[in-house]
Specification:
The protein is α/β, with parallel strands linked by helices. The protein has twelve helices and twelve strands. Helix 1 packs parallel to helix 12 and helix 5 crosses helix 7. The model has no long low-confidence stretch (mean pLDDT about 95).
Length: about 325
């Protein structure tokens, strides 16, 4: 294909990535994150061979069937691609790519921030200070949980789960994990494997999710009940993994000490009951939101486009 292949940039990306897209390709640049219908229409109008998309372009089987015949690659700008039916897209002969690796550290950093903030009651302390403080915090009041030395359970020991375990070791934590299969010893680094998540949960003083959606609701009322009383729950994976009613009940009842949440079942119109709970630390799905990481994610998507347009294999195919 021509070096000036026609590309649709269907989401707002960082300035550096947009500059590259304009320089290297004949690029139609959207001024906002396009919807599914807008993206399909724009791809057809521009005769695009490549679509660079984000989560607002939801390619289910019906939408995949409507993709223009000239589209050769759909380059997703995140590692997660649960907003599309990748198999349906690939069945059209279209290559699908994502962006693994480049967001591992930032996601683990934010997950560990949520862990610390939940354990140490950061939301409550911050709220107190913003109201002017003005009250004494007694010796036995406003007490958090010491995260150092606790037992951390990780569900999903892929790249991000392993990066989370590395950070936990720096705090002297015992690391347990549940995964589809056991890791080789050099990747485990002493973490203890549980074939069953249910068997692991009673041992987890802190639990952190690091797996993709698609397998249904993982954290049910029964699963939360298996955690020891006073446990902390962290989720930077996907909101669809969690029964949010059950989580709210566990937080209100005191069965869970606290939670740190970056993802929700509905975004951005999340369940605002979480905001009413003092023992929840909330962030708006921003685990990868650093300049360096968002640049790298968009650039990897464009690297995949460049490879396919040059007749080479995609770098990170789904």
């Amino acid at each position: 294909m021509s070096a000036r292949a026609r590309v649709l940039l269907a989401r707002k990306v960082t300035p550096a990535a947009e500059e590259r897209a304009r320089r290297d390709f004949d690029t139609l640049v959207a001024d906002h994150d396009l919807s599914t219908d807008e993206a399909i229409e724009a791809a057809a109008r521009h005769q695009a061979v490549a679509m660079v998309i984000g989560a607002s372009v939801k390619l289910d089987a019906a939408a995949a069937a409507r993709l223009p015949h000239h589209v050769k690659i759909v380059a997703n700008t995140s590692v997660g691609y649960d907003h599309m039916d990748a198999e349906a897209v690939k069945a059209r002969g279209i290559i699908v790519t994502n962006t693994p690796d480049v967001l591992t550290d930032c996601t683990a950093d934010l997950a560990f921030m949520l862990l610390l903030a939940a354990c140490r009651r950061a939301h409550e302390y911050d709220a107190l200070m913003r109201k002017g403080w003005r009250i004494k915090t007694g010796f036995s009041e406003w007490l958090g949980m010491k995260p150092s030395g606790k037992t951390l359970g990780i569900v999903g020991m892929g790249r991000i789960g392993r990066a989370m375990a590395d950070r936990a070791r720096g705090f002297g934590m015992r690391v347990l994990y549940h995964n589809r299969s056991r890791l080789p010893a050099e990747l485990e680094k002493g973490a203890e494997y549980f074939e069953s998540m249910e068997a692991m949960l009673p041992h987890c003083q802190i639990l952190s999710l690091h797996l993709p959606a698609g397998g249904g609701t993982l954290m049910t009322r029964e699963a939360f009940a298996l955690l020891p009383k006073g446990a902390v729950f962290v989720n930077t994976a996907r909101g669809a993994l969690v029964d949010e009613d059950a989580l709210i009940e566990a937080l209100k009842s005191g069965h869970l000490f606290a939670a740190g949440l970056d993802v929700f079942r509905k975004e951005p119109d999340y369940d605002t009951r979480f905001a009413e709970l003092p023992n929840v630390f909330l962030t708006p799905h921003v685990a990868s939101a650093t300049q360096e990481t968002r640049d790298a994610m968009a650039m990897l998507a464009l690297d995949n486009v460049a490879a396919v347009c040059a007749g080479r294999p995609a770098l990170t195919p789904v």
